[in-house]
Amino acid sequence: MSEPVIAQRRSYKVEMEPGTYWWCRCGRSATQPFCDGSHKVTDLEPLEVHISEKRLVAWCGCKHSKTMPFCDGTHRDLPPSE
Q: What is the CATH number of the domain that holds 46?
């Protein structure tokens, strides 16, 4: 299985409207935190997310959260970039 690219080491905080969104799981999308189809070179698929009411969402940017697609602070425990 492909490893996701760490898009950024913090969350993407976005005020969301109700609707369906596709969260980028691979980390390659140019439209983070959402999918732009860049995952097609991996075996990672985007995650469909339904937002039922307008709210601020902290989307995972490191792609390693245990509560994907939402940030749980895991980025703080990742090894440093090389």
A: 3.40.5
